[in-house]
Amino acid sequence: MTAVRRTFASSLFVGALVLAAGAATLTARGDEAKKDAGAATTTPAAAPSSVAVVVPPPPSGSKVMIATDSGTVACREQAAQPFLIRGNWFPRTNDAEKQKEARKLFEESLRYRTEKYGYFEGYGSPKLNPHPPKFYAKSMTFMGMAVQVNERIIPALKCVESALKAGPAGNEYHPHAMGGIRFHNTYRGMEISNHVYGIAIDIEPDRNSCCGCVAPWPDHPLCKAKNKTVWERMAMPKSWVDTFERFGFYWLGHDVLQDTMHFEFLGDPDKVTDPANSGAPLPAGAVASP
Ligand SMILES: [Zn+2]
Predict the structure, then answer these.
(1) How far is the CA of 34 from the centre of ligand 1 (A)?
(2) By C-alpha distance, which of 98, 106, 100 is closest to 45?
(3) How many angstroms separate the alpha carbon of residue 193 from the centre of ligand 1?
(4) What spacing in Å lies between the alpha carbon of 263 and ligand 1's midpoint?
(5) How far, in Å, from the CA of 69 to the mean position of ligand 1?
(6) What is the distance of C-alpha 211 from the center of its chain?
(7) If you measure from the C-alpha of residue 182 to the centroid of ligand 1, how many angstroms do you get, rounded to a whole number?
(8) Which of 77, 87, 197, 260 pairs with 189 at a CA distance of 20 to 30 A?
């Protein structure tokens, strides 16, 4: 496939072709291929509206606290916002009306991401944010791993970390490396990776593969095994996914791509913590938010 920028309508068209032909037709490489394959990433054809992919309410857990400059504060649980889920920008239908709705969702997501996380040249309006996502990039550690992300999602990652450490999940898995913000867009066409905004992370890509992506990702031994669920095709335990989902992260393992390494924060960064619920003692293992 060429790297020529496509219009949204043609992206949908290509998406429909990919859907019709199946993921085996993918020929592009690496992360760039995800865009086209992602067009097939939706829920049942009978879904009533363009917002087809929704996330169930996050699994509820015990109270989680993090430390901030102004003291300890409680984390709020929240689900990913449907208009930010890429599967909803590519409805599994040829219905022009639904495609129009989906385009609106996509444009809304671009506006939202620009306002909250920075303006990336060529995507959305520079009037919405004077700074690029790079301006908000900050280094942090997550479960002992160094990573650079958008500073606006650091509290949410701290909530996940605090919850992991407070329960058995923290001891079930010990990843050694992770990825965060990228300064170039790995997608082609109109779509932009959430890594560019610094709101996506990859946990141990060599052990949590992307079986639905293009080579070399499906060459992973866990992808080769037959009759396995997505949960069995990665080193990361489900408890980690559940914990991330409590705090507004969307897991791309739900996608047909089975991109099990990838989480993106699709919650509201202004609702990560509850300022009215602060001052309680910090649980053992919790880490102060910068
Ligand atoms: Zn990723």
Answers:
(1) 10
(2) 98
(3) 8
(4) 7
(5) 30
(6) 17
(7) 10
(8) 260
φ, ψ of residue 180 in degrees (nearest 5):
-135, -115
Q: What is the pTM of this model?
A: 0.78
Angle at 35 between CA 16 and CA 232, to 5 degrees: 100
CB atoms within 10 A of CB 3: 9
Q: What is the pLDDT of residues 116-132, one digit of tens each?
A: 999 999 999 999 999 99
45 exposure class (CB count in 10 Å sphere: 0-12, 13-18, 19+): exposed
Distance (angstroms) between ligand 1 centre and the Cα of 181 equals 9
Span from the CA of 128 to the centroid of ligand 1 (angstroms): 25
Q: Are 251 and 131 in contact (CB under 8 A)?
A: no
Distant-in-sequence, close-in-space partners of 11: CB < 8 Å, separation ≥ 6 = 35, 39, 90, 189, 190, 191
Read off the pLDDT of residues 203-217 as tens digits, 9 standing for 90 and up: 999 999 999 888 898
CA dist 167 to 5, 141, 274, Å?
A: 46, 19, 21
Residue 277 CA to ligand 1 centre (angstroms) = 33
User: Ligand 1: distance of its center to the CA of 185 in Å?
Assistant: 12
CA dist., res. 207 & res. 110, Å (int): 31
